[in-house]
Amino acid sequence: MTLPKVGLELSACCNPQPTGVSRYAQRLTEALLAESDYSFRALYRASRLKKRKYLSDWFQGPVRGYQGPLVWGRYDLVHGLDAQVPGWNHPRMIATFHDLAPLLITEERVSSTGFIQKKTAQYWETLRRAAHLITVSETTKRDLVRLFNLDSERITAIPLGLEERLLLPDPNRDEILAQKGLTPKKYLFFLGSLANRKNLKRMLAAFARSKAQESLDLVLAGEVSWGAGGLGQWVEELGLKKQVYILDYLPENQLPALYQGAAGFLFATLYEGFGLPILEAMAARTPILVGNQGAAPETAGGFAALCDPYQVESITQGIDQLLTFGETHLTQAQAHAQAFTWIKNANTTLALYEKLLKIPPLGPCLPAGTVDDLG
């Protein structure tokens, strides 16, 4: 019996500093390789050739670059893991959409005009090629159906997973924190791209007003991105220079220590398609605050303080609320997080592959000639 050949578009993994999407792509792929006998091939855009090693270092199988059309007959199914598929037609093409933030955050500018135009064009192109879509939350599935008038039967919501190591106490926690000048349980923590979309300016203002700032510091970790170039200035204007630590990108092996050492996790962002750090903080038994927009409340499952991310006072109240959560609440939150696994994600994804391989080709989610108009 010939095993199905599946091409996985993993350009997102050609990255020396993996973040949300690239971590999803790698963890899911590793689980797929462990759970299935399919013949998997890793695909990456030729423009990522110089960073190919970050993919080939861990992918256990053939790694192929592509530029322009390929002979799709070499693959029985192709899956683009970052809302993008190769620029060639294939009757069984799947794409994972992580969020639609560039199209949904309209109250204020959180991305450059060029980036928004690029992502919008990418979405339309993917919808004209993919026969089925995966979203990482029910929220993003509803967003896709509403914005693009899609058939909901063509979309499968498959939540992300949690790495088990995040559930285990890090024996090096105190040492790692000391290297960064931090004291266990004496700081609040934020992890993510340091960008406008993450609402850092309002979170800083809310922290400055909160009771928490009387005894706790605030740690912001991530790569500075679009719109947050003034982060240091915001901190100074609020008189928080001695209390706010701005860390760069954190390697994955340091994440458990930072989560476990935090007195609370702040994630009052403007929009999330899932919000993987929410699960990771819950796994560390760290109380959480999330914004009430996008999929963050869905991921938190009722175990986080909620706030209106557009209102500083609401964020302030949420910061003070999360510090009241007791041990029973944290135990329940941790159990909620444990229910999300990469094995479940992989098996649900494999079931979708099998379904699509058994039925006649469906054609793209959007017919050719559909006008690029979001109304």
Automatic annotation (TrEMBL):
Keywords: Transferase. GO terms for molecular function: glycosyltransferase activity. CDD domains: GT4_MtfB-like (cd03809). Residues 73-162 form the Glycosyltransferase subfamily 4-like N-terminal domain. One of its GO terms (biological process) is lipopolysaccharide biosynthetic process. The keyword Transferase applies. Transmembrane segments: none annotated. Pfam families: Glyco_transf_4, Glycos_transf_1. Residues 173-327 form the Glycosyl transferase family domain. InterPro entries: Glyco_trans_1 (IPR001296), Glyco_trans_4-like_N (IPR028098). The keyword Transferase applies. This is Glycosyl transferase family 1 domain-containing protein. It comes from Candidatus Lambdaproteobacteria bacterium RIFOXYD2_FULL_50_16.
